[in-house]
Amino acid sequence: PRTRHYDLVITEGQGWPDGVVRDMLFINGKFPGPLIEANRGDRLIVNVTNLLRENSTTMHWHGQYQNGTNWFDGTTGVTQCGIPAGQSFIYNFTVDNQFGTYWYHSHYSTQYLDGIVGPLIIHAPEEAAVRQLYDQDRIVLVQDWYHDFSTVNLGRYLVPDNENSEPVPDNGLINGWNYFNCSLYDPDSGYTCYDNSTYTVFTLDPNTRTRFRFINTGAFAEFELSFDNHTLSVIEADGTLVNPHPVHRLPIHVGQRYSAILTTNQSTATNYWLRAAMVTFCFTIDNAVLDPTTRAVVSYSGGNNTVFPLAEGDNASVDWADAYGVKCHDLDPSELVPSERMVPPAATRFWRVDFSFGIGAYQMDYAKVNGTTWKPLEGTTTLIEAVDGLAMAAGSGGSGSGSGFATSGVVSGFGENQFVVGVSNASVEVVDVLIYSLDEGAHPFHLHGHDFWILLTGSGPFDWANYYQNIMPSNPDVVGNALRRDTLTIAPYAWALIRFVADNPGLWVLHCHIAWHMEAGLLMQFVSRADVLGKMQIPEDVRGLCRPPPS
Ligand code: C2O
Hints:
Elements: E1 3-15, E2 22-27, E3 36-39, E4 43-50, E5 60-62, E6 88-94, E7 100-105, E8 117-123, H1 128-131, E9 136-145, H2 150-157, E10 171-174, E11 201-204, E12 209-216, E13 223-227, E14 232-237, E15 240-247, E16 250-252, E17 257-263, E18 272-278, E19 293-300, E20 349-357, E21 367-369, H3 382-395, E22 410-411, E23 420-422, E24 429-437, E25 443-447, E26 452-459, H4 464-471, H5 476-479, E27 484-485, E28 487-490, E29 494-502, E30 506-512, H6 515-519, E31 523-528, H7 530-533, H8 540-544
Parallel strand pairs: 1-4, 3-8, 9-12, 11-19, 20-24, 23-31
Antiparallel strand pairs: 1-2, 4-6, 5-7, 7-8, 9-10, 12-17, 13-16, 13-18, 14-15, 14-17, 18-19, 20-21, 22-23, 24-29, 25-28, 25-30, 26-27, 26-29, 30-31
């Protein structure tokens, strides 16, 4: 294993990824941020410098387990206080027991939407077999894009009586580029638009195989990805290798990743569109400037393919005839079979989590998770409260009742807006969470610090008999080789049963990755390994972020 150093410098300025000029944020002067790459087992030391004028920032390593380093998970108010403007903070963790396609982003309010995102790729010898299936790889960050700063949209969203109408994107981007038709904005719109916007181009040699690593780094929209004239073979979902699965269209919701192989076996006489079509069944496009299909170009090198840009209807690059198939949910998880079979251990604990939005006249547009609306703690973190509370309880010889989670259950003591549950008293527990949506939208739920198995999904009543007979005790014929990942879409008014092994001491959030929803409070927390958490030493520089600067 090696130690790899990276520097990420956060700045603000003006940018025009699609031609429309706006205030945005940059990492090392770029958007998207640089690739961070490591081998499994390596140590990553990432120095994040905040050169914003006012705002704090954090960095979250989406999908990284952070086993033993919960304080470097980057979650504002949960695992750390923000890095104040003008300061640096060093993240220092090992990438153990995992490899594949990940990403990093600010986890401070809706800040990542303004540009603080980048890819994180972990390699491992276990990929040797799958490595035979492709010749090269390409990273594809796909995301929706707004022409206003995120806090402006957040202000519009979190107003009374808004009936959970999320801000509708103005465009989408692929690796930070897309075309936008400036004439859609009239001169008095207030937007400056440069007419030279263009597409990302992937130049590939004919008859080669490319592993496209897709990452949805957006705010809100799910996309269906497709390449004209080419079939994709899916081989990875959120760091889990799966048996190759052919698709024309691949749905990807916010926070999710897929790897899929494309073979350049078509005519070299033209270019081909990569289409990322927003799945608009789940929201109304009341935005006249939005073209819901975001595009990039695949160009065969050495081909006679000078036709650019491609006109829609160019008869050499043709959208697949099959209809857009997905309505607000993931590919059926049973279609993605992990190449390494891993039967989940039997569950030792069960939680049901219901969520909904407060709607109706004069109600703020806030989310409720089992009755609570998350707001990040200020000036402290749930991690600090938990560690110090446990340490104090142990020191006073008490039973720990003061800490609120010596007995497993809903944890108190973190303020009224925190739904925090304890998952273990004294050992590693295996936790089932039944997530129940009482909302009409689709919600990509992400669990920090763990992968989970997707054991059941459905709508309507939950089959308790089946649960107690087969699912909870892990009958291998039933739970078998279920898909493992870290972000799944909960369909409208539907539910999903996930299972994870709570072997990772700390405070871990489960939240909807739609940035608007997280800021509306659609987030809850798990306390894991309370038996060892109180003995863990939070580094002084992490605690220091929560102290006001000396005056
Ligand atoms: Cu991409 Cu809470 O994370």
